[in-house]
Design goal:
About 50% of the residues lie in helices and about 10% in strands. It contains nine helices and five strands; from the N terminus they run βαβααααβαβααβα. It binds cytidine-5'-monophosphate.
Amino acid sequence: MLKRKNIIKIAIDSPAAAGAGTQAKLISKHYNLLQLDTGRIYRYVANIKIREPKKFNYQYLKKKISNLKISSLNSKKLLSDKVATIASIIAKDKKIRKLVYAFQLKCAYNPPKKYAGSCLDGRDICSVIMPDADVKLFITANLKTRVLRRYKELKAKNKNISYQDVLKSVKKRDKSDTNRKISPLKKTKDSILLNTSNLSIRRCFLKIKKIIDRKIIT
Ligand code: C5P
């Protein structure tokens, strides 16, 4: 695979609703990086399973992923709790992870020339996808904070959802994502831990900016 040289590579791992996506957006904008929320790819595959169950097989997925555009990952359909739950189930499938792998590598190592580099966030970015990233972050927050954040987000779209529903599904995903055999969520030794429970979005961004600047401005 073609790899661009001298690009900035930022890798972020985090459990569900810890604020990694928000920070990834801010970082990417500030440093002009291609941003990829890798969870969206698993959500995209989950959405195919929900909407086109008869067509759901590896061959079909291979075709869909090879034609995938980052813009298709912005669909609002992918944000529901149901899609997230199915995503964490299909994310345990070795063959599906393999199909998604190449797409992530291309974004990470060969972003379009207009970008100075790439910023990926997910569960296995520091460990599997970009082990040689310039900066590796593990963004987390306590369960209550994460559930409350996700509950507010989902409630704005779906009035029927309850705090208990969200608590149950975040807990279930945490358990599945950290305990699975393939590519489990785990903080790598070389990544920097950031607990955002008591940090505003701005404060958290400034902390990350300091870490990145220290690393890339030599
Ligand atoms: O980050 P997000 O909540 O959108 O991810 C949905 C699901 O996709 C996660 O719960 C996890 O099971 C899976 N995922 C993964 N590896 C990644 C990103 C997401 O297994 N790199």
